[in-house]
Amino acid sequence: MAAPSVQFTNFEAIAGSSPAVTQMRREIDSVSQYNVNVLTTGPTGAGKELVVQALHAKSGRKGKLICVNCAAIPRDLLEAELFGHEKGAFTGASTSRKGRFEDAAQGTLFLDEIGDMPLELQAKLLRVIETRKISRLGSNAERPVDFRLVCATHKNLGDKLHRGGFREDLLYRLSVVVIHVPPLSDRIQDIPELIVEISTQIENDGSDLVPPPVELDGMEELMRYDWPGNVRELKNFLQRAAIFSRGKPLNRSMVRRLLHLDERRDEEQAFLRNAIHNIPTAVDQTTTSEQHPKPFEVEKSNTSAIQTLRSGQRFRLKTHLENIELNYITTALELADSSVTRAAQMLSLKRTTLIAKMRKYGIFSEAEN
Ligand SMILES: Nc1ncnc2c1ncn2[C@@H]1O[C@H](COP(=O)(O)OP(=O)(O)OP(=O)(O)O)[C@@H](O)[C@H]1O
Fold first, then answer.
1. Which residues form a coiled coil (predicted)?
2. Which protein residue has the closest C-alpha to ligand 1 atom 26?
């Protein structure tokens, strides 16, 4: 089986001129010539692999860039994948085979999701880093290997280390240089440049898709969104836009539709109305919990949490809860004709607590009474 190597990426393919991306490019530039281990960190879809491709492209190393995703290969196969095996080393090993360390000869070995590497293999990796030699499974012969090691993780390896899931000595070895790729929400000013670069990539990827131009109000909407799936989510969005916009430039309402923002808002508002109408009030003293489902019961039927958490996209509970809180407060104020007192009753909050929350979110109520 041929080793999975990836296309070289131009340094220029890393779009963005925010301070964070400028710094990232500078770090790639400085470190690429040296054969030191590099760890790239950052949330999923932020561009870690792109950094690794740029590091390899700029390194001048003659061999290939070989990628191994430690989370995608079953534990018991990962060792043979990395180290290779001799014929008969295990059931089914009918021929001998090189491993990825050997495939990366004079090139770069990229171990993605290194945080998922089992502890036993971490010990073996540490030894290879120290000796620059490997033994294929089923053989005691040591073979010299010449590779440059780059690893990536979206997990906090420090946390994993404290829980005993990652070796401290290996972490120090891997992180001679750490290049952090920040979430897209921390460099929102890069979005226009990213759209240009990614649209060109999509136009040239053989899919026949042509992302539409973006109007000013559409761009504002895109820059307001928090992109939990980072640049990958932006790319998916542009592919969706190319399919559904029928060549029309993207304005605010199309962007909202394609991001399903109105549906999310409607869902939350419907949930809120349902919840508010089921809160027993002073007038409705006789209401019992049997007659009206509690808000919790309404929430249990909501499958969006399962979908979001299973999607693999970065999810921030704090931001999500703040959005829900803000939505409840604004809707309660709307339903209460801006009366803070009545809105506070609807939300079962003290009036002073609601006022404090309104200040936090910058909400002003003219009909404050
Ligand atoms: N700065 C950028 N400029 C252009 N394209 C980018 C940039 N950052 C990311 N991309 C594109 O976004 C997609 C996701 O990036 P990438 O695969 O590098 O993310 P990742 O952090 O490695 O994700 P994961 O942790 O899920 O493996 C890719 O198609 C990549 O080309």
1. none
2. 44
Checking if the pLDDT of 353 tops 90, the result is: no
Chain Cα centroid distance, residue 148 = 25
**Claim to verify: residue 42 and residue 132 sit in the same structural domain:** yes
Which amino acids bring their CB within 6 angstroms of ligand 1? Answer: 13-16, 42, 44-50, 112, 154, 194, 197-198, 231-232, 235
pTM above 0.90, yes or no: no
User: Which residues on neighbouring strands pair with residue 107, listed in sequence order?
Assistant: 147
Distance CA 150, CA 111 (A): 6
**Would you place residue 324 in the very low, low, confident or very high pLDDT band (cuts 50, 70, 90)?**
confident
Write out pLDDT tens, residues 132-147: 999 999 999 999 999 9
Between the CA of 119 and the centroid of ligand 1 the distance, in Å, is 28
Ligand 1 atom at minimal distance to the Cα of residue 50: 18
Taking the centre of ligand 1 as the mean of its atom positions, its distance from the CA of residue 38, in whole angstroms, is 17
Report how far ligand 1's centroid is from the alpha carbon of 76 (Å): 29
The complex scores an ipTM of 0.98
- Looking only at the bridges linking them, the beta strands covering 143-144 and 97-98 are unpaired
Q: Is residue 293 part of a domain?
A: yes
Q: Read off the pLDDT band of 323 (50, 70, 90).
A: confident
Rounded distance from Cα 79 to ligand 1 centre (Å): 27
Are 271 and 210 in the same domain?
A: no
**Percent helix, strand, coil in the chain (nearest 5)?**
50, 10, 40
Mean pLDDT of the residues in the chain: 84
| Ligand 1: residue whose CA is nearest its atom 8 | 47
Contact present, 3 and 103 (Cβ < 8 Å): yes
CA of 218 to the centre of ligand 1 (A): 23
Domain tally for the chain?
A: 3
pLDDT in tens, 241-269: 999 988 899 999 999 999 987 766 566 66
Distance (Å) from CA 181 to ligand 1 centroid: 10
Residue 225 sits in a domain whose CATH number is 1.10.8.60
Site to substitute for ligand 1 among 232, 234, 236, most atoms within 8 A of C-beta? 232
- What's the token pair of residue 123? 């010990």
Strand partners, 126: none
SS3 143: strand
